[in-house]
Amino acid sequence: MNIGVVGGGAVGLLTASYLIEMGHKVTLYVRSETQAVHIREFGGSRDRKQFYVDEVRVSTNFKDEDFMMLCVKTIALEEVLSSIIEQAPNTPLLFLCNGMAHIRMMEELTQPVYAGVVEHGVLRTGIGSVVHRGVGRIRFAPVNELDQRFIQQLVGNEMKCFKFEQSEDYRSLLTEKLIVNATVNPLTALFKVKNGQLLNSPHLHQLARMVCEECCGILGVSMDSMWTYVQSVIRQTANNESSMLKDIRHERKTELDAITGYLCAEAAAKGFPSPINTFLYNAIKELELN
């Protein structure tokens, strides 16, 4: 298939590299011309193994694809999506974005749409290079009931270390990932620790459990099963630094609004107390300002 991968970050580069290995023709859409030129000239690398993308474009210049995966931060999604709608309005889309603030955008689209979550551990080490630090899977579910034939070509041609798994309920998928992100990202950014420290430190372990419990209460999810899942993700990505911690270190805007901000808004709408998430939201906002 002709597959577009939107985003030149860690997830985008990892995904592009495996899709190429599976035999798909990949167009990589990146934010800057500098990155586009580098990858066109030198290719990319995954675990120090070179890969070459069929075509690299800046993410304001889209074309029709058999399928397109959106691996961009929520803060950049609206601008990217408006260009896709204008230039490739019929291309089926798979959203691989953090948080749940993009649900309304997905539900309003007229082409086939999927929502997914990425469970791989991956670190971008350079402008075109990544290290695959934890093998997981990409889980996805349909958002609308439009043509879904192309997805079988993707699932039927997967690799052992890069699997796709189809689910039925996209809201459940996004809810699980949101709780993981809301538990891990703000705490690791605030205390400047790797993910695994949230379980290794008894104090951070208690804080992580408290955050998870409040998130479950806001979203009406079972705490016992969710906490087990959150801990398994933390163990799988123990040596990773969260994206929010990296953003704070590099003085970039975080995805806080799409994660903790979304939860605080949901809690306010339901009249559910959210003192822990409210504290984390304001604490990370202060770090962003400074």
Automatic annotation (TrEMBL):
Gene Ontology biological process terms, A to Z: pantothenate biosynthetic process
Ketopantoate reductase N-terminal domain location: 3-144
Keyword line: NADP, Oxidoreductase, Pantothenate biosynthesis
Family under the similarity heading: Belongs to the ketopantoate reductase family.
Name of a matching Pfam family: ApbA_C
Pathway as given in its UniProt record: Cofactor biosynthesis; (R)-pantothenate biosynthesis; (R)-pantoate from 3-methyl-2-oxobutanoate: step 2/2
Gene3D superfamilies, per the entry: N-(1-d-carboxylethyl)-l-norvaline Dehydrogenase, domain 2, NAD(P)-binding Rossmann-like Domain
Job description of the protein: Catalyzes the NADPH-dependent reduction of ketopantoate into pantoic acid.
Protein name listed in UniProt: 2-dehydropantoate 2-reductase
InterPro entries given in the database record: 6-PGluconate_DH-like_C_sf (IPR008927), 6PGD_dom2 (IPR013328), ApbA (IPR003710), Ketopantoate_reductase (IPR050838), KPA_reductase (IPR013752), KPR_N (IPR013332), NAD(P)-bd_dom_sf (IPR036291)
Domain Ketopantoate reductase C-terminal span(s) in chain numbering: 171-288
Top-level class of the enzyme under EC nomenclature: oxidoreductase
GO molecular function: 2-dehydropantoate 2-reductase activity; NADP binding
EC number: 1.1.1.169
This protein's record includes keyword Oxidoreductase: yes
